[in-house]
# Entry
Amino acid sequence: MTDSFSSVGKKVRLSRILRGGRAVIFAFDHGFEHGPSDFPEGRESPKTIIDLAVKAGFDALMTTKGVARATKDLWAGKIPLILKVTGKTSIRPPEQRFLQYSIGSVEEAFAMGADGVAATVYWGSPHEEAMAEQFSSIVSVCDRVGMPVMILSYPRGPGMSDWYNVETVRYACRASAELGADLIKTYYTGSAEAFKKVVEVSPVPVLMSGGTKAKEEIDFLKAVENVMSAGGAGVVVGRNLFQSQNFIGLARAVISIVHGGLKAEDALKLAKE
# Structure
């Protein structure tokens, strides 16, 4: 059976993001989601951080359309772009912080030469239905034009006491796969054994969300190691790197674990060289 043109396009774009089925993706939507306070002094400009990310050798860059346009001279032709097409600010009323809305489109991603799009669903949110329907519509458009779509699959709601509970996270990932996601970014569940339970329910690659900055670099690197030993496809990370004084060294340590199979301790030594 002959592949459709769109299925060929999706395979080609995914192959540029996933190297050997694995990826280290740099997440950089924090200026919209959290505001400038996330960035250390001297790194307030998007260009400063994107320049470091490109030099570090990430497999892909996930960011918003405005930042992508403003930094095109730094990433274009050097690193695949994944355009974030949903978002929310942290200055919204508390009851509205469990809803992501449209901040971009598949058409804009295609026009900019992106290799993928990303959108968030807060599973368990009072607004779950709206976000799931929005994501399903994004998937339909992506399938027509041959664009891979990554879901930021987050169990999150005002009545949810533990967002990182393994049963809740694996449920969210299964629901994400059932909606048609090509890649899933989700919470780390605390151990290789627990994350393996998450990976095993998904027919598509699962990547760890880097989350807030770890107290110690070795703790973050051990989490990456555990994710890979559990069968994960890699990580999507931002703050643990751009809030570090050793951005490039630590990024290369993560890459060495994901693509080179290094242990966390050896990777940390590499980061400090």
About this structure: The two ends are 51 Å apart (CA to CA). DSSP finds 13 helices and ten strands in the chain. The chain has a mean pLDDT of 96.
